[in-house]
Design goal:
Length: 108
């Protein structure tokens, strides 16, 4: 999800993820992750799991998800950057709509 072009700047310069942002702070000044973003992450995980091959290793899909390296018993591999990004599922796009930057590509 960090590859998406999203509105707002991270709340602090040293935070690892895009959210929370300066726009996602409540009246007391406490930062929060918007519930729609959490739902989008859940939907995207369901979408990926529902379409994941159970026995084959799909390197293009791994690259599209931003995976740079992986390992499993008996295998360790570094992936080179390659073409292809997975389309954003409609359910995920609906949850993310308030944060997506209009007129820009979905992936950076």
């Amino acid at each position: 999800m960090e590859r998406l072009a999203l509105r707002g700047a991270p709340l602090t310069e040293d935070q690892a993820l895009h959210f929370p942002t300066a726009e996602t702070v409540d009246r007391r000044g406490a930062a929060y992750i918007p519930i729609g973003l959490k739902y989008a992450q859940i939907e995207w995980a369901f979408h990926i799991l529902a379409r994941a091959p159970e026995t084959t290793l799909d390197r293009a899909s791994l690259r599209a998800q931003g995976v740079r390296s992986f390992s499993r018993p008996g295998l360790s591999e570094q992936l080179t950057p390659g073409p292809g990004t997975l389309p954003l599922p409609p359910e995920v796009r609906a949850y993310l709509q308030p944060w997506l930057i209009a007129g820009r590509r979905i992936y950076r």
